[in-house]
Amino acid sequence: MSSTTATVSHDLSSAPGQTQPLRRTLGLWQGVSLYVGSVLGTGVLVLPGVAAETAGPASVLAWLGLVLLSLPLALTYAALSRQRADAAGFSDAIERAFGPRWGAVAGWLFLAQVPMGMAVGALIAGEYGASVLGGGEVMVFTLGTALVVAAYALNFVGLRVSATAQLMTLGVIVVGLVLIVGSALQDVQVQAFTPFFSRGPVTVGLAAVQLFWAFVGWEAITPLAKEFREPRDIWRASMLAVGIVAAVYLPLAIVTIGTGAYGAATGAKAPLVVLAGHVFGPNASRVVGIAGLLLSFIPMNAYVAGTSRLTFALGERRQLPSWLGVTSASGTPHRALAALGAAALLGLAATYLGRLRIADLLPFSTSSFLATYVLSMAAASKLLRPPLSYAALLSLVACTAVLFFVGTFLAWVAAVTVCALAYQQLVSRRRAD
């Protein structure tokens, strides 16, 4: 799960009737860290194996294609940030281009995937924990559910994992990946890549849909645009971040395939656990399994914080039921958290009873994310001037092409969109009456 929301608190009440401007405290490398931290989430721990099972060796093309798509995406979001720095981020751009109803649609699409998205995050965490503790499917769901409950509980009482802890987590993930992947490169077998299209060329598109989960996050920096000391650092940070993400994702995908660290031969273990065991021995597998479980919590906590604030904001603006737009005495959006927590637990229950896997759940989340990206890029192509509008158009075409591969899940996107528009129409009629 990529951490898709950056949260920054500021004191806006230092003087009656006055608002303090946001401080410009972000430098180039702080921006790079925020960008990479937004994109590089727990998906990197499991998705190389999921994609390899779907498309075989050709899944490398899906990774490469999404890395290339990240360049115009990052450029476009950086351009929108510089054009108008607003805390509403990408939804503000959609509202400016197409009106508040379509901004609401983007919010609904983002929130509609919470039950499935939390289930994916729980399964990723649970698989790492179960790889060490054993217990099979029951242990996976027990550990995953415990982390979900802990994330909502901590947010409910107002406790937050600090930004420093999140950046430290990012550092641990990157360093661990470099050590494991760098050591495993010598074990890559060329014959593991033949036949290259072992599952057919169409599966590359299906793998891209699954992998889009690992590339969500380029929009997360937009609310922080006002806080860069140098506006040009937004561009530079986004480009450096694309390079770092590519340097992490592509080698890991190659090593996962080249060493056969996926599929039934791994005993359902996560790819990094298998790779660590091959390179450093069984004790390393245990360390990676425990680390994967613990590290999964921080992006999950950030995800809960971000989606609850979005739910609160939509309720406050009556784009969702207004009772969601209420905070407790301590300022916590307790009703939004309770509603989302209940939805997440229902999603986990359905996943367990239906024996669904990560690959089964990902299309729900990625189709929703893709739809919000399509809306964002369409808005950017209208709001930006050439040549930046060309980058937006390129991203729009590419995101639409990937969205096509969700197949029947387009009906899911359409259903959420219709419900969002119908709700806005209902609210408008009630206000008129």
Automatic annotation (TrEMBL):
InterPro entries per UniProt: AA/rel_permease1, APC_superfamily
Membrane topology: Multi-pass membrane protein
Molecular function in Gene Ontology: transmembrane transporter activity
Entry's Gene Ontology cellular component terms: plasma membrane
Origin: domain of life: Bacteria
Protein keywords: Cell membrane, Membrane, Transmembrane, Transmembrane helix
Pfam families hit by this protein: AA_permease_2 (PF13520)
Listed transmembrane segments: 32-52, 58-80, 101-126, 138-155, 167-185, 205-225, 237-255, 261-280, 287-306, 336-354, 361-384, 390-423
Subcellular location: Cell membrane
Name of the protein in its database record: Amino acid permease
Organism for this UniProt entry: Pyxidicoccus fallax
